[in-house]
Amino acid sequence: MPLKLVATTAIIFISLYCSAQTKYTISGTVKDAKTGEELIGATVRLKDSLAIGTMTNAYGFFSLTIPAGKKKLSAAYIGYNEYETEISSPVNQTINFSLQPASRELQEVEIKARKSDDNILNSEVSAVKLDIKQLEKIPVLFGEKDLLKTIQLLPGVQPAAEGNSGFYVRGGSNDQNLILLDEATVYNASHLLGFFSTFNNDAIKDATLYKGNMPAEYGGRLSSVLDVKMKEGNNQNYVISGGIGLIASRLNIEGPIVKDKGSFMVTGRRTYADLFLKLSNNKELRKSILYFYDLNAKANYKIGKRDRIFISGYFGQDNFGFRDRFSINYGNATATFRWNHIFSDKLFSNTSFIYNDFNYTVGVQIANIDIKSVVRDFSLKEDLDYFLNNNNKLKFGFQSTFHTIVPGQTTSKDTAQLNSIFLTKSYGWENALYAQHEVTLWQKLNINYGVRLSIFSQTGPSNYYKFPNEEQVDTFKLKLGQFGKTYVNPEPRVSLSYNFYPRMSFKAAYSRNVQNIHLLSNSTTSLPTDRWTITSNNVKPEIADQISGGYFVNFYKDMFELSVEGYYKWLYNQIDYKNGAILRANETVENQLLYGIGRAYGAEFFFKKRTGKFTGWVSYTLSRSERKFTEINNNNWFPARVDRTHDVSVVLMYDITPRINVSATWIYYTGMAVTYPTGKYILDGQLVPLYGNRNQDRFPAYHRLDIGATFVLKKRKNWEHDLNVSIYNTYAKKNAYTIDVRVNDQGFLFTEKTYLFRIVPSITYNFKFTAIKKEKKTDVPLK
Amino acid sequence: MCHLNKILFLLLAAAMQWITISCTEKIDLKLKDASPKIVIEGRVTDAPGPYYVAVSESSTFAQPILFNGIDSAIVIISDNAGNIDTLTKVYSGIFITNTLQGVVGRTYLLTVIADGATYNATSTMQAPVAIDSIGFETSVGFSGRESLRAHCFFRDPAGMRNFYKIESAINSKKHLSNEASSDRLWDGKLRSMNVPNDTLIPGDTLDVNLLMLDENVFNYFDALEDISSGFNQPAAPANPPSNIVPQTLGYFSAHSISKQTVIIP
Predict the structure, then answer these.
(1) In Å, how far from its chain's centre is CA A41?
(2) Structure pTM?
(3) CB-CB contact of A148 with A135 (8 Å)
(4) Chain B contact set for A675 (CB, 8 A)
(5) Does B23 touch chain A if contact means CB atoms closer than 8 Å?
(6) Exposed, middle or buried, B50 (CB in 10 Å: 0-12/13-18/19+)?
(7) Which residue has the higher pLDDT, A76 or A1?
């Protein structure tokens, strides 16, 4: 392996330096002509020599080096009309493209190979770029369009529970997913205890999911990275759009700050289920609270030709109170400040300052206590894109994050009965350096290799614990700036693709991921109050090695897409809990943990029809995920809770007319691995269930059909509105949410399931108003 | 505090009820049957004897609910003061002591020979903590129904770990509960513990026993409560960690008891 790597590196460096002299570089951006939003992953190519081309980066920037001579340059992006331009003089220059969104009829004709074969050409394995527009057609629970529920329809991604926004990727747990919103980590991406995600679709521009083989620029979680980017806001016209749904309403306002120079976007959403509580006859219910809201805001401004700044933020909060007795309030806040700087036509830089905070407060009014907890990060991140030449792209940078964990501060207002308990805060400093090189050889082989060096240090000012044996607990103190245990982990990443036919490729990848922040939860239902803990002298970093390979093919003029992927994952330092472990309000939680290993493997099949009136996909995953702990199951392998043998998703969309669209999704998966009683006994006059080995049983298989339809009521340049109706669980399958053991009248035991939903119909009304300015005016003609 | 999990789960359940139409239905599952396992339950207290030990066998899920006593078992309790008592069978699987008297501070050893295997367990009797008073209050539960609750007040000895369990009886009828608490979060406080009994009727006689457990027995009851409470079952339910060696089902507890009897107002 190391020898091979050296050989490959040598080849790559040779290819780096054999470029000719008579070349010049074109750089610039590709944008949507209507909204001014930069397009990520748009292709820019030479018309007369298709092999010379590149793709725009996360900020819509590209750099292309071309041989001298008069050339035609074109930019293309899926769903947009291709745009061509003539290069007048053979000198280094900036060209900005503005692409017109294609009308539906045009799209079908226009979609040509090179716009839609990205899935074949690029070397990213196990990565899916989500089509945010398509997401709007897929029926969902309560009609709330939800990114996190849509990704669960992809191969290798499974829902954590009924109607839940939590997800498992390739046999990894929920906390092994890194969810980024404009680079800021979202620690709890759920609202209303999981039924909704924190992502308001109106605010999202782009989302990419990496199922373990992420490029070196990402790191920090074992299973996946979901990189979500907020919209920049229309920099041409002012737009007001929104929706009124059964559960929540949304409003989005966007527009130029200065046309073509800067724009802003503000999006809000609030549920109103609690308003119905107010109508209740029950005065106790009237005192209850149940709602959540989201606020997304973003602004960007170009300063000169080389600099651009972005400020974006998210604030979301759930407020939930049961009468005046108990309450939970929880939410995320993120803020990102970014600065793009173009050093040269080949070197693009982005610097980010990132803040994120997840906190909850549980109030137990009857016991006069409040419990507060916070997870907070401050980060500085620098990413550099160096477009060496058309076949060689370098990316390098660093990230430095300071983690603060406040594990639960119990404030008692009645200290006669209960002490206030302030669990010791813990601090961690996480640094990562990365470099990656993307190279194309012989126009057929794409290699992306790199390394991420992650360094994690436990730090002060705080107290930490040592457990020399079962009984003994020793304390040691770290002052501010003093480091405890430090873990250094190189994370090599390699992925390659080989196109042996124009529309066909083989891809393979290896990557190591390291995780230094862990979620502790030993209950069936994941709660926002589950405890986050960081790597320390006791808790080692979780590590995963994944290999994956796949075959990708597009056929029938790129109308169809087929892929088959396989993966195998080795997991180290996985966490489980001692019997009866106390995770809450426990100062020495680290001695309640058990450490073991895991393995996950599977095959993923994906077939998609991409164009035409009738579109959709079928995905099937066959997989296994197991764990092994010395203290559990006599050190034998047992199925992880997330293990699902079969997982099928079918998504169908049909445009009956340009104004009426219908859709359906059907999902099926093997029930989760659980431990059922294997018998019973009587103790102290009570019936007690007898348990055998861990996770040897299964929930019944889950399946469900959802259908939906969208009726466009009117679609004009400046005014459009539509009506969306959907039915969740159309054939009323009573899927088990929990299974309990009960005793019947004859004195026999029986099992009983609780299911959450039968048929849930919903209706949502959406509108969009665009104020198109006819002349250049400084004031806003908004009416 | 240790009920926080329960509170959170009840909150979740309430939320689910508002936004879902959750219902229950009988479901037939193929359950694996374990071969019978020995269940031992033994207690020695500072109250006058005799004390009993129950030895039985577990049954499969589908079998009727019966106490399957093992009559052939040999049961011996001894203490670190040199007393040995071989217990006498009184009912099927129920054995009682003949001469033994529990004393605070002594360590007791239980030996059970059953089905050809020998099981041993030790437990040390902790000093009692006096009940200060029993108080009553009317509270509104999650269902919105008002009910009368009893609280047992006592002063926790400061500077040491103590483990409590409250057992109650109404008109001498024992109320079953596995709830146990430690003073982890309220060391040295004048503390009230909820008497786990929600069918209190004015005029009835309520007996409250405050048990002082040793740590192993507390861990047993704490884990037992987790798997038998029905609320928010642990993700990976397992048999409670027994203080009996080799590991089997059940426990052996030597504990002291403080009593108070009141007429429910």
Answers:
(1) 18
(2) 0.83
(3) no
(4) 236-238
(5) yes
(6) middle
(7) A76
